[in-house]
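Progress note, project year one: complex with zinc ion.
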Amino acid sequence: MLAGFIDLVLPPRCGGCRRVGAWLCDGCRGRIRRLHEPLCRRCGAEVESARRDCGCRQRLRSLARLRSAVAYEGPIELAIQRFKYQGWRRLATPLALLLVERLVVEGLAASWAVAVPLHPERQWARGFNQSELLAAELRARMSLETPPGQLVRARATPPQVGHDRLWRQNNVRGAFVWQGPDLAGRSVLIVDDVATTGATLEACAAALKAAGSGPVIGAAVARVSV
Ligand SMILES: [Zn+2]
Ligand SMILES: [Zn+2]
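Model obtained:
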């Protein structure tokens, strides 16, 4: 557990290159790859022409929008791995700021920010839920309210990494459930660190919609190109 607290007492160190001085140094910021326009209006994927959507409507039925701040490459990939697996929790701030910037530019907001939950066993092993740290930053910086309940994993699911779109979709379908009052048509930002096909965010959005939410916007710091 000690390793999980080291970032709270040591001076800032770059999540991309480990240089001391800032949690994300200017050099690494300069090497962040932004997503290339045009992007699919619905899921935010890089597309060849600016059509209304890329064909994602059939599989992303519950998500009104999905947006990612940057590409999951280079310093951002390293920073997210240190954030999640090495307990560099202070990286939540610079990573969330990239996402806030993107959401503000697009004029996207919501009543609540809800994190994609980890299974309790995985959260216990890691000591924290990285998505919850990001959601907390979004609440503070975008003046969003704390949700009146919580989204939980109804069952454990094997990691999505290394599987195709259909497998991922089936793996997480019905895996989440809202515990709390009816969401009364209010809009929700569902927050994760990385989005690939959007299947996990979609499964979360389905649970929120089933609990009566209004539009659900998926928001991830980084996007994996598929
Ligand atoms: Zn750096
Ligand atoms: Zn799309």
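The radius of gyration is 17 Å.
The chain has one domain: 2-223.
No further modelling is planned for this target in the current period.
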